[in-house]
Amino acid sequence: MSNKGTIKVTGVSKVYDNGVVGLDNINLDIAAGEFVVIVGLSGAGKSTLLRSLNRLHDVTEGSIEIDGQDITKASGKELRNMRRNVAMIFQNYNLVKRATVSRNVLSGRVGYYGTWQSAFGLFTKEDQERAVQSLTRVNLLDKYYTKARDLSGGQQQRVGIARALMQEPAVFLADEPVSGLDPKTTKVVMGDLKRLNEEDGLTVIANLHSIDLALAYATRIVGLRGGKLVYDQPIENVKETDFADIYREAEVSR
Ligand SMILES: Nc1ncnc2c1ncn2[C@@H]1O[C@H](COP(=O)(O)OP(=O)(O)OP(=O)(O)O)[C@@H](O)[C@H]1O
């Protein structure tokens, strides 16, 4: 089996410019195809960890190997290639609201094009076909020509998933992907993520606020508190009572 989709976080700390410690010496080894849910109080460092994994921001210390390559040291073309491999969906979807669904989905492909090609929207036939396939996988092909702003929140998030799929990633980061969605829509979005995880072997790492969702979808649960990793167990070992400790206030005020 290839190691596509493995992540090795070693001694990672992140101190923001204002001195706030976002992450404090995180060590984490994730195998390809895991569905890791990160839980913890607001401010525990969950988003900081996700944003470090695709280098949306730099870390202060430590290394993050994706498929054996350290993304914290990569630059230029190498970094662009690594970023393609690590797709992300966001709490607020980050779609271009006035653009069509197809245009939003195709934009997931820009990492494969030069600047001028993507500026003029010169996407190849293959990529247009790829967009059709991505939308089909989230069951939204009928919205191909619809403007993103005319979709419900759940549909917008699924467009976000289709857009992320265009990168052909091995790793899928989901930063609170279902907050604000009703229970039924939440199930559809989480179901899409789980299906991609199981069918394509995508490594999924999701920040979630709901313990029930964490228990329902994760193969492994990681707990953060005050920027530190305080819990890391495969789902078989997780007891509901474990969460009380993860959700305890961090002792050190930051
Ligand atoms: N850009 C920033 N500049 C300074 N401090 C920041 C920045 N982003 C986050 N922080 C701080 O870093 C810590 C971790 O924040 P982070 O957003 O990672 O937490 P979180 O667990 O994702 O919280 P939430 O569940 O509310 O999204 C918090 O103390 C936060 O205030």
UniProtKB/TrEMBL annotation:
PROSITE patterns: ABC_TRANSPORTER_1 (PS00211), ABC_TRANSPORTER_2 (PS50893)
Domain of life: Bacteria
Molecular function as annotated in GO: hydrolase activity
Coiled-coil portions: none
Pfam families: ABC_tran
Class of this enzyme: hydrolase
Keywords, sorted A to Z: ATP-binding, Cell membrane, Hydrolase, Membrane, Nucleotide-binding, Phosphonate transport, Translocase, Transport
Record-linked InterPro entries: AAA+_ATPase (IPR003593), ABC_transporter-like_ATP-bd (IPR003439), ABC_transporter-like_CS (IPR017871), ABC_transpr_PhnC (IPR012693), MetN_ABC_transporter-like (IPR050086), P-loop_NTPase (IPR027417)
EC number: 3.6.3.28
Domain ABC transporter: 7-251
Keyword Metal-binding in annotation: no
Listed name of the protein: ATPase component (PhnC)
Organism expressing this protein natively: Fructobacillus tropaeoli
